[in-house]
Amino acid sequence: MADTPDTPSAPENPADSSDPPPERPVDGIPAAAAAPVEALSPATVALLGPLPFPVLPVAQALLDAGHPVRILCASDAEAQLVRGLEGDGAEAVGGEPGDPEALNRLLEGARAAAFLDPVTPYGRLWKARAGKHLDDLKSLILRAEAGSVRDLVYLSSVAADPKSLAPCLREAAEAETTIAGSRLMDYVLRAGPLVGAGDGFVERLVAQAQSGSPLAVVRGYGDLALQPLHAEDLGRCVARCVSKLPQELRTGVYAIAGEETLTELELFDRILERLQRFKLKLHLPLFVARIQANAGGPQSAAAERSGLLAAAFATDRNDVKRLLGPGAKLHGLEAAIGELSGAGAAAPAAASGASS
Fold it and tell me: For 154-191, how does the pLDDT look when each residue is reduced to its tens digit (9 = 90+)?
């Protein structure tokens, strides 16, 4: 069982301690009989989540760290994206997350698994699996516990809250509790909004800034707190969780976010400045969002968006540099905006079912 608490409230930073992790069984073998840490690297890592984002950037970071990856792909187009990764060790496994046989093939011989379905300020990114997040997670845990998987990395949100008005944030909190009850060594990464081609949020703001319209719609007052994290930095954090050198991390909850905290309106202004554009901003009143939410019901997309406007996608605690090391350099927001605007707002998401 993992060291995570029964509630989503994070414990003291597990990365702060230089003490060795607590003893626990590895694949049912007492810790005293487990192989030395050096013998456990590299790890084959099974990845489950929307393609291309954020699975491909995370997979590339794992490959760069020497870990082979196996990725579940629902189509030939997704498998082609996996084959385009740089370096050896990337394998595409055909099938859907709801197919037990596909999960068995994905996890066969893997020592670690990562479930990566980001929560954006517009909702979950993996639209093709809408409403199935918890079921997919439980299926993954069940089959991982029965096989060779030792470590589980779960991508949560810094805004996860069992009392949130947004169903996806309540879902993330419930997922953390489910993981805490598993027999796996679990690493819960509570992330801020992710940035990269296909992120479903920053790219949307870039597209609005690049549009020919002189007007831009801002949700509410634009005061949603954000701490964006580049997907490549997320990948490095995942790689550190499954890498047992220089020492094994303690299991637990880690908050990971970018170095800048700003509001949604400030982010949009930053994008406009970067692109040398000007827009007249029209604010969508919060009461309109609430009326739409009430009309659609508590599980509707409108209710989700309204609840997300009341969340905070930023954190006072940031464990990124504790995970990556004190000298670690993160991707700057300016560079990320430049990447999205230079390559166009649309990612190769036609194969993913991840676009919003």
Answer: 999 999 999 998 999 999 999 999 999 999 999 999 99
Structure tokens that stand for 64 in this block: 């760069």
Lowest-confidence segment of 50-54, 116-120, 154-158, 300-304 by average pLDDT: 300-304
Q: Which residues sit opposite 273 in a β-bridge?
A: none
Amino acid letter for position 183? R
pTM of the model: 0.84
Where exactly are the structural domains of the chain? Answer: 14-21+36-340
CATH number (3.40.50.720, 3.30.460.10, 3.40.50.300, 3.40.50.620) of 14-21+36-340 reads 3.40.50.720
Q: How many other C-beta atoms lie within 10 A of the C-beta of residue 292? A: 16
The pairing of beta strand 119-120 with beta strand 123-124: antiparallel
Rounded to whole angstroms, how far apart are CA atoms 172 and 154? 10
C-alpha distances in Å from residue 308, one per residue of 107, 302, 304, 350: 33, 10, 6, 26
Reduce the DSSP state of residue 217 to 3 states and report it: strand
Bridge partners (DSSP) listed for residue 191: 157, 256
What is the SS3 assignment for 250?
Answer: coil
Lowest mean pLDDT among 42-51, 196-205, 283-292: 283-292
155 near 199, Cβ under 8 Å?
A: no
CB atoms within 10 A of CB 69: 27
Cα 181 → chain centroid: 21
**Amino acid 211: pLDDT:** 93
- Check residues 32 and 251 and name the one with the higher pLDDT: 251
DSSP E strands in 101-226: the ranges are 112-115, 119-120, 123-124, 151-157, 185-191, 194-195, 215-219, 225-226
Q: Which pLDDT score is estimated for 289? A: 58
Residue with tokens 């969002």: 289
Mean pLDDT of the chain: 83
CB 69 within 8 A of CB 45: yes
User: Which of 41, 35, 50, 341 lies closest to 209, judged by CA?
Assistant: 341
Cα separation, 304 vs 130, in Å, equals 12
